[in-house]
Amino acid sequence: MEGSEGATTPGATNFVCLDANILIRMVSQSKPGCDPEHWEALKAMVATGDVTFLLPEIVLMEFDKQIFHSREDFFVTVEKAKDHLSKLPSEVWNEVRQDLLDFLDKHLTKWQTTRISKWANDGSLIRKWLKAPPVVLLEFNATIWFRAKKRLIEGRLPKTKQKQKQKLQSDEEGRSKTREWARDNDCSIIESLSQYFGGKKTGKSRDKQLFLCTENLDDFGFEKPGTKRKVLDKRLQANLPPTEIFLDLESLVKALEQRTLVETPPTDEEFEQVLKEKVEEEERIARETSWMTPGIPPSTQILGQELRRLHERYTAEWRTAAGEGDISRGDILQKTIYGALVGLINKYKNRLDIPHDVRWKQLVELRDQFEEILRIRLEPDEYWKEGTNMLFEMGNLAHAYESY
User: Is the peptide bond before 56 cis (omega within 30 degrees of 0)?
Assistant: First the structure.
């Protein structure tokens, strides 16, 4: 069966499986590609029998967790927003500052209440449809869990850049965003599908094809060399029919409406080419960072070097301004340093092992100190003393990051 754009599938049985992130995107509507019209179009195809909708129960469990047990996440998000707003820069007109803060606080609280309600209501409508025929629920049981865990331990799944990123994802206060169970769930999805297609219900008919929709291509497959089509990793193909991956509902629905044949599975040569390219990419990165001190994480050392340059650049200017008592010049330097620290924190917050590094907390506190000194007016002697101490602390942090 040759995969080609626009080819039709006479007599083919189309199966669809959505990852939890696609269903969640339907509720959040935080980016295009999973709009209500795409969802309604897919539901219509399922209702007429043109498409068989497969729902691994592990997907439903993830969906429920995010949609119906996320009240605390909303609260934390709003509180963070309020905290940042309370630190509006000194340039904001003092005559309206508090009035503006009160207005934003009131409307953020209102948004939190209404958004939680809408989130749960929209999620309930989707869940109600998912739990009713003709959707086929693939039970999550001990057998599926065991097979998924075995697959994970044996490494019969893609080695993804996404997982490497998850280990580093933290907010600026050092709280980990890692989802240790993410790969277990991916394996459970595959094992659920494998059991379904490998069972007596479906046999191994060659006219079946699976459309898998997920935002995380690296977790399940790759872009086939020489095409823009996304295919399933060979290590995940056992018992499954030809499978193509789609990154949003829009592209999935388009392929189904055009009755497009899914892309043919990758050959051994194509699969080896993809693996080779990944190895070459890792080697390229290793070469580019080989000049760094062995044993020191590259991003950690580079951050130390950037802090060192920032410290050396502005310390002399600060001393000159202090010697002349030029507070206007001092304010300009403070604003410049504050902006540079904000840039460094935003640049490195997803690259470092923040939860285990007290230096990061000290860096965030240093940024806040520079912001604070811009918002209050100290006596001249105290002003120059505080600024000098903060620059001294920056030098210490630079040394700490460069050393280990």
Answer: no
Among 142-146, 313-317, 390-394, the range of highest mean pLDDT: 142-146
Are the beta carbons of 256 and 14 closer than 8 angstroms?
Answer: yes
- C-beta separation of 89 from 375 below 8 A: yes
At residue 216, what is the residue type? N
Q: Side-chain half-sphere of 302: how many Cα atoms within 13 Å? A: 14
| Helical (H) or strand (E) element with 16 | strand 13-18
User: For residues 345 and 75, what is the distance between their CA atoms, to the nearest angstrom?
Assistant: 24
Q: How far apart are CA 191 and CA 148, in angstroms?
A: 6
SS3 state at 196: helix
Q: Which of 251, 222, 254, 248 is nearest to 235 (CA)?
A: 222
Q: How large a percentage of the chain has pLDDT more than 70?
A: 82
Q: What is the DSSP letter of 178?
A: -
Task: Name the band, by pLDDT with cuts 50, 70 and 90, for residue 160.
Answer: low
Structure-token pair, residue 331: 């304010």
Token pair for 364: 């965030």
Q: Phi and psi at residue 288, in whole multiples of 5°?
A: -70, -20
H/E run at residue 232: strand 230-232
**pLDDT-based confidence at 12, cuts 50/70/90?**
low
Give the model confidence (pLDDT) of 121-153 as tens digits: 999 999 999 999 999 999 999 999 999 999 988
The answer to whether the beta carbons of residues 345 and 367 sit under 8 Å apart is yes
| Residue 182 · residue 19 · CB < 8 Å | no
Q: What is the pLDDT of residue 291?
A: 44
List the structure tokens of 262. 């899914």
Q: Which helix (H) or strand (E) holds 38?
A: helix 36-47
Question: Which among 202, 183, 273 is positioned nearest to 231, based on CA atoms?
Answer: 273
Kindly report, residue by residue over 201-233, the tens digit of the pLDDT.
Answer: 554 556 899 999 999 998 999 888 888 899 999
Structure tokens at 365: 């506190």
What's residue 297's pLDDT? 55
Residue 56 host element (H or E):
strand 51-56
Please tell me the predicted confidence (pLDDT) of residue 201.
54
Instruction: Give one DSSP letter per residue of 122-153, joined into a string.
Output: HHHHHHHHHTSTTSEEE---HHHHHHHHHHHH
pTM: 0.63
Residues counted in the chain: 404
Contacts of 37 (CB under 8 A, 6+ apart): none
